[in-house]
Structure formats: structure tokens, C-alpha cells
Specification:
mainly alpha; 5 helices
């Protein structure tokens, strides 16, 4: 059931972020650079999270401790989102 929800909604995130770059760029020449920056930042989680989760689970021996990594990443995302929202005002 989760797959039926997350697959279509997960595909909307990259499209909405990349389409916002046209309004966030200061000049039209910066749109491509901003889109690539969004791409690179978006790949940080998939690159570093699996090894970090593996280290935490290997150290503790409990799969439920993987929630520490994902919970901290989610909290960091919320904090950064609030900070960026304040900057945009």
C-alpha cells in the first residue's frame, strides 16, 4: 500500500523543485546551475544514508536503531526548511 502512495508522490518532488529554479534564479543564465545544485544536494541522502544506517545497525545489532538516522535526517530537513523560509521573507 505504501508503494502505491509514495511512488506517484515521490516523483512530484524533483519536478516541483526543478521548476522552482526558474523563479529562484537571479538571472536566466543561472537556472541551469541552480538545477544542478538541486540535483547534487538531492543526492546527498541516497549516497550517505545507507552506509550510515549500516554502521548504526552493525554497532547496536538492532534494526530499529535505523530510525535514529532517518529521524535525525527528517528533523534536519525541517530545521533547514524553516531557516530557508525565514530567509525568503
Amino acid at each position: 500500500m505504501d508503494c502505491a502512495y509514495f511512488c506517484p508522490s515521490g516523483g512530484l518532488n524533483p519536478a516541483s523543485v526543478l521548476s522552482a529554479s526558474a523563479s529562484l534564479a537571479r538571472t536566466p543564465k543561472q537556472i541551469g546551475t541552480l538545477q544542478e545544485l538541486f540535483n547534487q544536494v538531492g543526492n546527498i541522502g541516497p549516497s550517505f544514508a545507507p552506509p550510515l544506517i549500516a554502521m548504526v545497525v552493525a554497532a547496536s545489532g538492532l534494526w530499529r536503531d535505523a530510525l535514529i538516522v532517518t529521524g535525525c535526517a527528517a528533523l534536519l530537513g525541517v530545521i533547514l526548511g524553516v531557516m530557508i523560509r525565514r530567509l525568503e521573507r
